[in-house]
Amino acid sequence: MFSKDYLLPTLALFGAMVLWASSFIAMKIAVSGFSPIAVVFGRMAIASFLFLVLWKNFRGLKVRRQDWKQLIFMALCEPCLYFVLEAYALKYTSATQAGMIVATLPVFVAIAAFFILKEKLALRVWIGFFLAAGGVAMLSWGATATENAPNPLLGNTLETLAMVAATGYMVTAKSLSNRYSPLFITALQAWVGAIFFLPLLAFTPGAIPTEFPHDATIAVLYLASVVTMVAYGLYNYGLSKVPAGQASGFTNLIPVFTMLMGFAFLGDRLSLIQFIACGLVLSGVILTQISPSKKAAATA
């Protein structure tokens, strides 16, 4: 039996992963009715308004002048570059394949920490990196064009670049998290994103929607409110109750949930080669996340 103190945070983290996985399905539906730029601007604009409602939480907050460059760079990486790349990626690849590529994010972060933060990496991390990279390559090259993935090679390449942008965000946010709350950082991302995407919406030909398809509109509202606000709240509640390493481990559930949702709601299908590729990706990610101390404890 799980104690209440453990069960509730676990359910919260589990729920956050389900919602974040569902964002790929919602984004796929949204870009079927609107341009990618319109989708990401709508998501950021609505989220910005929702965060303004919480303005009282930011009263008295002082931002150090020397931190502004890092804060702006962080927001440019994500949501700006990340959402542009991911939105266009989902025009060309399936939600299932995109979700699987997201599983490589911890690997990218580990490699970035090696080069930027000078953190030492064990041999298993390098092996895991090349396994995951090989899996992504196989996932892309082994794909054939379908209705849900008209150009999987292009789409998966864009999603991989989105992971590079997300890595820039995570490495920068790591140095800022000691001084600023997760709520403020998330709100700043939404506000900078809305400002960034507004001129892109205005000057990109065909980006401004002339019609508002029902399903696509609901998907944008869902992305802005449920995914951005509720998933964020659930994750941070769980994070406040369990160790950070344990909480981050839940992110490995995202590609699994995305695959199941893509199969159920979008009719996504994977070939045998792509299933093998998914296995390589997950094996590589798991290898990078194994704690040597835990292994030693288990054999002691």
From TrEMBL:
Assigned keywords, A-Z: Cell membrane, Membrane, Transmembrane, Transmembrane helix
GO cellular component terms listed in the entry, alphabetical order: plasma membrane
InterPro entries in UniProt: AA-Vitamin_Transporters, EamA_dom, EmrE-like
Signal sequence segment: none
UniProt subcellular location: Cell membrane
Bilayer-crossing regions: 7-27, 33-55, 71-90, 96-116, 123-141, 153-171, 183-204, 216-235, 247-266, 272-290
Annotated PANTHER family: INNER MEMBRANE TRANSPORTER, S-ADENOSYLMETHIONINE_S-ADENOSYLHOMOCYSTEINE TRANSPORTER
Taxonomic lineage of the native organism: Bacteria, Pseudomonadati, Thermodesulfobacteriota, Desulfovibrionia, Desulfovibrionales
Oxidoreductase as UniProt keyword: no
Superkingdom, taxonomy of origin: Bacteria
Domain EamA: 11-140, 160-288
Gene source species: Halodesulfovibrio marinisediminis DSM 17456
Record-given protein name: Threonine/homoserine efflux transporter RhtA
Membrane topology label: Multi-pass membrane protein
